[in-house]
Design a protein that fits this description.
It contains 15 helices and 14 strands. It has 400 residues and is of the alpha/beta class. Helix 1 packs antiparallel against helix 10 and helix 10 crosses helix 11. It binds pyridoxal-5'-phosphate.
């Protein structure tokens, strides 16, 4: 029997704040009640704020994030459409696989795992496409498998500089509501998020935030992929009234209301700053142990997840098993080709410095048990030093 709290340091599902969990603990209610729109319309409005989407709209689907990937494609693209994608981790890989299965003509650029969206290669493809055959360009904003964040604004800039009309698709499942994301400013047409990462909810809902341009692409008379459950038209007709074309997860709505309130109470910019600070402490800790990130350069570092390469001769899966069974801690594993060589610390959602220090302490002790030659406490000490400096620099210690 385990005592205390099981430490959850996977990059989703993340910890659900007590306030959110309690908000969901309500009796079942009538999803067609006359006052249901008071709740649902407030959610649509505030989700737009979270995405910084001013002129478009947000869909909520009862699915995990993967469902919104599919909805984005089906509603705006046709079989055989040319799309530009890139692959540098398990999630960007899976989106490419989905696009192929759905019948798109995919140009998938392979990038070394540890880097992100290749702006140069994208620019070359866009510049060469003078007849505008590329219908959509895809960006995995935060590759959760490798801990790599890509430059969405940079992709928008190069599309604009070539006056290219392609739709811009962004997977923001592990970035939106945790790190800087500006849908309107960056001209993102379809942005995908899920409930169980930055939104601090259980898994089971996806959010798809779309621009006016994406809605127009959905409405135009070009034939699209077949779609039914995820079709925009039925959703829009009902959502405009505050209802859904099928039974929605109403308990979730109360949780989402609470999580959006928490995000806006803190302020999105403060949420982003907190994620940077917590992540930087974890990174200092990893460096303090003499270990390396999968992300190959600082410009790619993710503030929501760190993928860590274990020393030669150490089995990362063994480290994770020890962490789980002996020390009651869940870390993320190395996905696909990173299996056995990498473990991940998810540092997004409802967490603070001491929790991150706990993650580092648990990683250290598990690495030691697995045979790694590291100095006990070196990671924790480096992170402590950074967190103290960061707060002093903020002037917060003086203010408190
Ligand atoms: C978690 C994640 C997904 C998949 O989301 P599900 O909710 O598991 O369907 C997709 N993309 C990224 C970047 C993710 O982190």
């Amino acid at each position: 029997m385990k005592h205390g709290i099981r430490q959850l340091f996977i990059p989703g599902p993340t910890n659900v704040p007590d306030k959110v969990r309690r908000a969901m603990n309500v009796p079942m209610e009538d999803q067609r009640a006359p006052d249901m729109p008071d709740l649902t319309l407030s959610l649509f409005r505030d989700l737009k704020r979270a995405f910084k989407n001013e002129t478009g709209r947000v869909f909520m689907f009862p699915s995990s994030g993967t469902g919104a990937w599919e909805a984005a494609i089906q509603n705006t693209l046709a079989p055989g459409d040319k799309v530009l994608m890139s692959r540098f981790g398990q999630f960007s890989h899976l989106w490419v696989e989905m696009a192929k299965r759905l019948g798109l003509d995919v140009n998938a650029i392979d990038v070394e795992w540890g880097a992100g969206v290749p702006l140069d290669a994208y620019e070359a493809a866009i510049a060469a496409d003078t007849s505008h055959e590329i219908r959509a360009v895809f960006v995995t904003h935060n590759e959760t498998a490798t801990g790599v964040t890509s430059d969405v604004a940079g992709v928008r800039k190069l599309l604009d500089s070539h006056s290219h009309p392609a739709l811009l698709f962004v997977d923001g499942v592990s970035s939106i509501a945790s790190i800087d994301f500006r849908q309107e400013e960056w001209g993102v047409d379809l942005a995908v998020a899920g409930s169980q990462k930055g939104f601090m909810l259980p898994a089971g809902m996806s959010f798809l935030s779309v621009s006016e341009k994406a809605l127009a692409a959905n409405r135009d008379n070009r034939e699209k992929l077949p779609r039914s459950y995820f079709g925009f038209t039925d959703m829009i007709a009902m959502n405009d009234q505050g209802y859904f074309p099928y039974t929605p997860p109403t308990q979730f709505f109360h949780g989402l209301r609470a999580s959006l309130d928490l995000l806006f109470e803190e302020g999105l910019e403060n949420v982003f700053a907190r994620h940077y600070r917590l992540a930087e402490g974890v990174r200092r800790g990893i460096a303090g142990l003499g270990l390396n990130l999968v992300a190959v350069e600082r410009k790619w570092y993710s503030d929501t997840v760190s993928a860590i390469t274990v020393p030669d001769g150490i089995d990362a899966n063994q480290v994770m098993k020890i962490a789980y069974h002996r020390y009651n801690t869940s870390f993320g594993g190395g996905l696909a080709r990173l299996g056995g060589r990498v473990f991940r610390i998810g540092h997004l959602g409802d967490l603070n410095e001491v929790m991150c220090l706990g993650a580092l302490a648990s990683a250290e002790i598990s690495l030691l048990d697995a045979g790694a030659k590291i100095t006990p406490g070196a990671g924790v000490a480096a992170a402590q030093t950074y967190y103290r400096e960061a707060h002093e620099a903020d002037g917060r210690l003086a203010a408190e």
